Amino acid sequence: MKILIVGAAGDVGQTIVTELSGRHKIITAGRNGGDVRVDISDRASIDAMYQAIGQVDAVVSATGSVHFAPLAEFTEAQFMLGLGHKVMGQINLVLAGMAHVSDGGSFTLTSGVLDRDPIRMGAGAATANAALGGFVTGAAIEMPRGQRLNVVSPGLLEASQQRYGAWFPGHMPVSSKRVGLAYAKSVEGALTGKVIIVE
Amino acid sequence: MKILIVGAAGDVGQTIVTELSGRHKIITAGRNGGDVRVDISDRASIDAMYQAIGQVDAVVSATGSVHFAPLAEFTEAQFMLGLGHKVMGQINLVLAGMAHVSDGGSFTLTSGVLDRDPIRMGAGAATANAALGGFVTGAAIEMPRGQRLNVVSPGLLEASQQRYGAWFPGHMPVSSKRVGLAYAKSVEGALTGKVIIVE
């Protein structure tokens, strides 16, 4: 398969590249690097990316920003960062990409653990993660030409533990191998409309 | 209890008023009517509403707009209507209201069935509904002074069946009584951080 991986340079993105690159042709995309540049907050940038790469068999997204803050200090603009960037940016990868993915191809988005196992300062992330699960459930039944749509919801990655672990008391980090396998399940398997939990 | 009901004139809002008005003092709020006017898309309007009514023991929201369209025709602006209005508007009722709700008081928001039982044209609603579930899960653990936070997720209401039923093939409508009871469970009970499903 020819697979586009958006956010390939991040902790999650690297696990996806490692898992899939031995068996597939990978095209990496990112804001600051990769085979092609893309800013997922800008629909025109997403359209330009798809025009540049031609048809692919799968799109995998491991990108999107959210704000972390104590609930009492959260502003509307900080909440809307998660809804506008992590949620709408990934939804736009699907809306813009349906015409560029082959029949029976797939989209795999990335959410995270905080909507099922919350932490302090994580209300914005919990909202965004859950929204992506709802999108996948709602949109999968309307995908064209047999295209599939899932979202992977990984726990705190072992690779991210040193930077973020103190914010996640009691969370068991998940191995890069398990995270990579979840994306393989979505891309190479037959599931659609699923939140694929890694924990 | 003194209970603020935002969106009291809608199909869901009326079930809440019917269920709670016999036992509590109700203040109704809406865009075009009620004891106090409020536009939930405008944080300043929400702040003004709370200033006008003084302290309450519970806030119940049954309001928020989403767009319905075939997935292939959905635009970014149409998705952002649900995220900006139904999601952010209800979140702002909580963020702005925490200082105006009594110790141990509660917030009860409203989502809907489409993130667990999707229909055609419902991807925007599914995304917004799920986002509200994630917000409640994430934010409940940080609510101040024993305040609680839940969201009621009702199926298609019997009262709405004539207008919207054709869009919901195979959905069993839920009675106004069951819907009202779900809000009573949230307001008068002790739950927090829950998606209270009515089906």
Overview of the structural elements:
Two copies of one chain form a homodimer. In chain A, helix 1 crosses helix 6 and helix 3 runs parallel beside helix 4. The first copy, chain A, has 199 residues and is of the alpha/beta class. The mean pLDDT of chain A is 97. The longest helix of chain A is centred in the middle third of the chain and has 22 residues. Chain A contains six helices and seven strands, in the order E-H-E-E-H-E-H-E-H-E-H-H-E. A seven-stranded parallel sheet of chain A has the order 3-2-1-4-5-6-7, with helices on both faces. The interface between A and B is large, with 46 and 46 residues.
**Share of residues in strands of chain A:** 15-25%
Radius of gyration of chain A, taken over Cα atoms and rounded to an integer in Å: 16 Å
Quaternary organisation: homodimer
The separation of the N and C termini of chain A measures: 27 Å
Mean pLDDT of chain A: 97
Number of strands of chain A: 7
Main attributes of the structure:
homodimer; 199 residues; alpha/beta; 7-stranded parallel β-sheet; 39% helix; globular
Summary, kept brief:
Chain A is 39% helix and 20% strand. By secondary structure, chain A is of the alpha/beta class.
What topology does this entry show?
2 copies of one chain form a homodimer.
Chain A (H helix, E strand, L loop, with lengths): L1 E5 L4 H10 L4 E6 L5 E2 L5 H11 L2 E6 L14 H22 L3 E10 L12 H18 L7 E7 L6 H4 L11 H13 L6 E4 L1
Helix pairs in contact in A: 1-6, 2-3, 3-4
